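[Help] Beginner question about ligand-bound structures

Sorry if this is basic. My supervisor gave me a protein sequence and a SMILES string for S-adenosylmethionine and asked me to "get the holo structure". I don't really know what that means in practice or what format the answer should be in. Inputs are pasted below exactly as I got them.
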Amino acid sequence: MTEISRVSRSKEEARQNYDKMSRWYDLFTSSEKKFTDAGLPMLNVQSGESVLEIGFGTGYALLALAKAANPALVHGIDLSPEMRIVAEKRLARAGLSERALLQTGDASELPYEKNFFDAIFISFTLELFDTPEIPRVLNECRRVLKEGGRLGVVALEKQDSRAVRIYEWFHQKMPSFVDCRPIYASASLEEAGFSVAKRKLLKMWGLPVSILVAIKNP
Ligand SMILES: C[S@@+](CC[C@H](N)C(=O)[O-])C[C@H]1O[C@@H](n2cnc3c(N)ncnc32)[C@H](O)[C@@H]1O
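Answer (accepted):
No worries, everyone starts somewhere. Holo just means with the ligand present. The predicted complex, written as structure tokens, is below.
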């Protein structure tokens, strides 16, 4: 397996970039929404389940998660305070402000108790962590998930293809703008102590996108 690209920018730079992009983010990422839409029913959140979204961005998935988990609250954590403001406005417009508890913070140290969540959703965000941090984030997911808890991941999947090589070139040249990079999503989950129970591999502009639901191993 060839190595995935490393992440050269700092967390502070990431926060500043997402803060700047927050108001326009949905305009230039509309093509990603269908992958999130494919991941949500696979995670299949049930009424009363405690759910966390990591890297909720503008809150697109939070709406569906909040409705599905009702009467339980949906939790969310995102590095960017400006993204949080956009997500909170979106929840308010949908009349769901009371159904979500959002925090600003770094998902490599989740501020939640162990065995707290039934399900976690993370879309186009696991790819933003540097290579040594991916297992750290997944360990944190393991820690806060209940036994048998589900982790839903939507991520660019690293494969040996021309589309991936071209995309990685842009990632190297413009890391602030092309921030996500393809990772070995499925293998990373298995290595971190999850069993992948459901998987789909779709394509976005020729790039492989993994949609996975993994169960926390005992
Ligand atoms: C590419 S966007 C994806 C947003 C959303 N999940 C979606 O699919 O539209 C990545 C999001 O992750 C957040 N993020 C980046 N690094 C993070 C970190 N270390 N901890 C938590 N959130 C982070 C960014 O602020 C941004 O909102």
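A couple of things worth pointing out: Residues 11, 14, 18, 29, 32, 36, 54-57, 60, 77-80, 83, 106-108, 123-125, 128, 180 surround S-adenosylmethionine (CB under 6 Å). Residues 81-93 form the longest helix (13 residues). Feel free to follow up in the thread.
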